[in-house]
Amino acid sequence: MNNLIIKNTAQIVTCSGFKGKCGKEMSNLHVIENGTVIVTEGIISHVLHSGQEMPVNEQDYNIIDATGKALLPGFVDPHTHFVFGGYREEEFSWRMRGESYMEIMNRGGGIVNTTRATREATEEELMEVGSQRLDAMMQLGITTIEGKSGYGLEKDTELKQLCVMRRLNEIHPMDIIPTFMGAHAIPAEWKGKEDQFIDFNIREMFPLVAKEKLAEAVDIFCEKGVFTIEQSRRYLTAARKHGFLLKIHADEIVQLGGAELAAELHCLSADHLLQASDEGIRAMAKTGVVATLLPLTAFSLREEYAHGRKMIDEGCMVALATDLNPGSSFTASVPLLFALACIYMKFSPEEAVTAFTINSAAAINRADRIGSIDVGKQGDLVLLQFPSYKFLPYHVGMNIVETVIKRGRVVVKN
Q1: CATH of residue 328
Q2: What phi and psi, each to the nearest 5 degrees, are found at residue 252?
Q3: Quick one: CA dihedral 58, 63, 67, 70, positive or negative?
Q4: What angle, rounded to 10 degrees, do the helices at 155-171 and 111-120 form?
Q5: At residue 256, what are phi and psi to the nearest 5 degrees?
Q6: Fewest CB within a 10 Å sphere: which of 54, 128, 194, 397?
Q7: Domain check: are 92 and 148 in the same one?
Q8: Whether residue 23 sits in one domain with residue 97
Q9: Residue 382 phi/psi, 5° resolution?
Q10: Residues 320, 387: one domain?
Q11: Do residues 67 and 85 share a domain?
């Protein structure tokens, strides 16, 4: 039964809204004390304040007594690479000895290493490990994710990754929003022929992925030593003609102008942004590009964090994501994500919650249906062990999610 009543909540942290929030608005969580949420047939049908009369017959509903607990929207992770083969634990030890991300890439490690393992993995093997990763993310309160391809870098494996995501979306409670990232790195067979590799994606992959409806968006790694601004502009402009939404890995390692390009092309989101310029930040704020920040990646790489505080103060719509991947961020730790955002990136707890709910939903074009506790939205909810959302960054590194609800059904009970 998809009918559920959650009553006697200490807080309903609604994050209310049907679009992402910019700047100062990110601090407004629209909290209801001692309220009740009713989910009918998987959709939120009522959000009641204390003392309001129950508008449905309770006998038709499962009931959760949430006394002493805070209720939030299900967390939304708008940047993951969760379908991959193999691991890169050896490269982690190289980084700890001082080798840079780009140095490891240049010696055959990095994305190209995972590409080899993913090409060798069967679809069923990727299904199994992908499902395990989804289970682990759901335990942490994540109810919707974006999943990127990009570990094939050739036709068959890119399609294999996208097909695995489609199959997992059909059988797993998690909602998976697929992104085609055919330009994630330059494969060995295309070294020195980067423009031709872009042409291959435009000419062969875009029409095929669009025809089979395997992805909603496309992404590209716009970075020194990977793809240039001009190559990225050509790739993304062509993708839009096939109906794809546009995303970009921008300004992660050097200040290349990726944030400015995202604003120029009105991308849905620009991600990473550790080196984004002041001009790029202002341009994203002006054009409504979601700035998706990945503090777990900066932490894992021992890099300076993106200037999230400045982005919020400049009026950007800022989202948070885990960037779960086998190299630069082999984690989906929601507790660590909140701690890093608040302690090191200087987000308020309110801004961090907004960034991982309604704004992260906006980063995958879903703010109209998930990311907040509003009537008409999907019944994706998270119940904490504690009476306030402020425990999320405060109880450092600890998973405080007690119950996860997906479309009105309890899918996790910790």
Answers
A1: 3.20.20.140
A2: -80, -45
A3: negative
A4: 70
A5: -105, -20
A6: 397
A7: yes
A8: no
A9: -130, 130
A10: no
A11: no
User: What is the separation of C-alpha 397 from the centre of its chain, rounded to a whole number of angstroms?
Assistant: 19
Query: Among 7, 272, 320, which residue's Cα sits nearest to residue 141?
Result: 320
Q: What whole-number distance in Å separates Cα of residue 165 and Cα of residue 168?
A: 5
Structural domain containing residue 287: 75-362
User: Do the bridges between strand 175-183 and strand 217-222 make them parallel or antiparallel, or are there none, so unpaired?
Assistant: parallel
One-letter amino acid at 64 equals I
Half-sphere exposure of 370 (CA within 13 A, CB side): 31
Q: Are residues 105 and 149 in the same domain?
A: yes
In the block, residue with structure tokens 């402009």: 237
Residue type, 22: C
Helix, strand, coil distribution of the chain in percent, nearest 5: 40, 20, 40
SS3 readout for 210-230:
HHHCCCCEEEEEECCCCECHH
Predicted TM-score (pTM) of this structure? 0.97
Query: What is the domain count for the chain?
Result: 2
Residue in the block written with tokens 């704020």: 285
Q: What is the pLDDT along the chain (414 residues), one digit of tens a residue?
A: 799 999 999 999 999 999 999 999 999 999 999 999 999 999 999 999 999 999 999 999 999 999 999 999 999 999 999 999 999 998 899 888 988 877 887 777 888 889 999 999 999 999 999 999 999 999 999 999 999 999 999 999 999 999 999 999 999 999 999 999 999 999 989 999 999 999 999 999 999 999 999 999 999 999 999 999 999 999 999 999 999 999 999 999 999 999 999 999 999 999 999 999 999 999 999 999 999 999 999 999 999 999 999 999 999 999 999 999 999 999 999 999 999 999 999 999 999 999 999 999 999 999 999 999 999 999 999 999 999 999 999 999 999 999 999 999 999 999
